Amino acid sequence: MPPTRTILIDDHRLFNDGLSLVLRESPDFTVVEQVYDSRLALEACSRQVPDLILVDFNMPYMDGLTVVEQVKQLPGPTKIVVISMYAEKREIARFDELMVDGYIAKTVAADRLLTLLRQVMAGERVVETDNPSLPHIDDAVRVSYGLTKREIEILKRVKQDMTTEQIADELCLSYFTVQTHRKNISQKLPFTTKKEFYDFLESLT
Amino acid sequence: MPPTRTILIDDHRLFNDGLSLVLRESPDFTVVEQVYDSRLALEACSRQVPDLILVDFNMPYMDGLTVVEQVKQLPGPTKIVVISMYAEKREIARFDELMVDGYIAKTVAADRLLTLLRQVMAGERVVETDNPSLPHIDDAVRVSYGLTKREIEILKRVKQDMTTEQIADELCLSYFTVQTHRKNISQKLPFTTKKEFYDFLESLT
DNA sequence: CTAAAAATACCTCGTACGAGGTATTTTTTT
DNA sequence: AAAAAAATACCTCGTACGAGGTATTTTTAG
């Protein structure tokens, strides 16, 4: 059986190169091309007609979504696996619609990735969104910013874009109480930009 | 000369494992430990006393900032290099304050990383925030969402958390014009959550 | 048991923005 | 030259939140 001809699409060269080494460890995969610029992905795929592409979701210029949409238009039995930073249900849902063959979080170990990719090549659809061996505690985050348990509860809901009123309803609190918590939280956190804040929220489970 | 004893700290196992393979390619580096959970980073560093640690900035539980702060308290001449998703001046400034030995974006190629790490071990401080070979155009992003050039201009400033008024001042536009652009933008973009929106902004240069 | 920390609740003011309009001018495309 | 697209500008209403307060109750730690 010939090795699976694979194209890697990720603008993070370091990750792309590392992933390439991971695949090279296994004789049943061969990396025929590495694409560092999503705009070149389509061209590479139509030229190489790979058996498998691994595409990062978060890329500049053209996001993974667009790449996937376009590659699916191409002829050939190319399998598509999305590699993602995030293990969010919302993200997964978007790719579910696109019917990709796999959705794998970057938290998986290298050997686990190979196992999953082999399953994909065998015709399965795989979703591996989280590493179960990592316990979901946010104590460290909490302590490092001096947040209380209640404040974390509030933050988790802020992360989901819930409004003060919605949070109050869900936790059976007064609107004003949630207001107070949010105020205290923003005084404790050092972030100056919204982006920093949302990056921080990302780390809450 | 003995190889540089290195610890990798990144909760993205796949990246961590890939990075490990990258370093193993070079005889002057040896990876003594891979840490997948930032909470265990301090313990590993005090036990191993490595020559070099590579730490990811964006991690759950405890961010790179905290890890760096703590590791700097430990004895030993451990060099600290931050590996980051982002090439943002703001981020770099935060690590500049901490006086780490290197700040390297994930967009660098594997062999370039090795070169930079050797420079660090030779006593230099390195900052490599962007890959100059990638032209900064956001045409693809623009077209895929049907945004106009002007709208991109507005968005870039929204990304910097500028208010409607500030944007209007900078671009010599009426407040109302900027308001209109922002309205049109939010109608064109499909994002339902703030997080999705900020992830998208990340892709603008 | 007692002091500190956390959680609860209330109030107001100012800022900011999205969504709903309408409308004119400029630029680009055909 | 005409039509289409983009950019400009104005207006209002409602929602939401941060920052500034104050104050009571509950829980935790010493």
Task: Note the main attributes of this structure.
elongated; homodimer; 205 residues; alpha/beta; six-stranded parallel β-sheet; DNA-binding; 10 helices
Describe the protein.
2 copies of one chain form a homodimer. Chain A is elongated, with a radius of gyration of 20 Å. Mean pLDDT of chain A is 83; it is low at 132-137. Chain A is built from 10 helices and 6 strands; from the N terminus they run βαβαβαβαβαβααααα. Chain A has 205 residues and is α/β, with parallel strands linked by helices. The first copy, chain A, has helices spanning 13-24, 41-48, 64-73, 89-98, 110-121, 139-145, 149-159, 164-170, 175-188, 194-202; strands spanning 4-9, 29-35, 52-56, 79-84, 102-105, 126-128. At the A-B interface, helix 1, helix 5, helix 6 and helix 10 of A face helix 1, helix 5, helix 6 and helix 10 of B. Chain A binds a DNA duplex (30 and 30 nucleotides) through residues 148-151, 163-165, 173-177, 179-183, 186-187.
**Major sheet details of chain A:** 6 strands, parallel
Which range does the strand content of chain A fall in?
15-25%
Give the oligomeric state of the chains in this entry, treating copies of one chain as homo and distinct chains as hetero.
homodimer
Distance between the termini of chain A: 42 Å
Mean of pLDDT of chain A: 83
| Rg of chain A, Å, rounded | 20 Å
> How many individual β-strands of chain A?
6
The succession of helices and strands of chain A, N to C, reads EHEHEHEHEHEHHHHH
Strand order of the largest sheet of chain A: 2-1-3-4-5-6
How would you describe the shape of chain A? elongated
Unreliable residue stretches of chain A? 132-137
Q: What percentage of residues of chain A falls in helices of 4 or more residues?
A: 40-55%
Helices of chain A, by number, come to 10
Which chains have the largest interface? A-B, 58 and 58 residues
Class derived from helix and strand content of chain A: alpha/beta
